[in-house]
Description:
This protein is of the alpha/beta class. Helix content is 42%, strand content 20%. The chain has helices at 13-29, 56-80, 93-103, 127-134; strands at 4-8, 32-39, 84-90, 108-112, 140-143.
Amino acid sequence: MFSKILLGVDGSDPSKKAAQYAIELAKNCGSTLLLVHVVNLSAFSNVIANPRDIAKHVYDKIMEEAQGYLDAKEELCRQKGVPCEKILQIGHPVDEIIKIAEERGASLIVMGSKGRTGLGGSVFGSVSYGVLHRDKNIPVFVVKS
């Protein structure tokens, strides 16, 4: 039924809970998980004029942390025998998640109900809410925190 399941990954507790559901669902359905993390550099627009002006060490730290989120979920998939692909993208999380899901042929999107949007919280509103209300083609499974 679900050949590919996109899992939004951000390191928050709700994201971790959503990962548990997504991995079990993928295992039971024989699905591939698309592990997606989107780095939103616009979160820094009030701090600096242009995201390209972010000091290299800050940018590197952000990307290292993002890769860590993906690596942790990849390890869980490996332990459960679930095939996965890691996707690290820069952009607006809602737009990028929907775009990746459509381009990669995801048949389900799984996300935690709350996550680490922007600078540590709900700076720009909920990504799961945005995906749920903007994507009209792919079912969205939101795991409550």
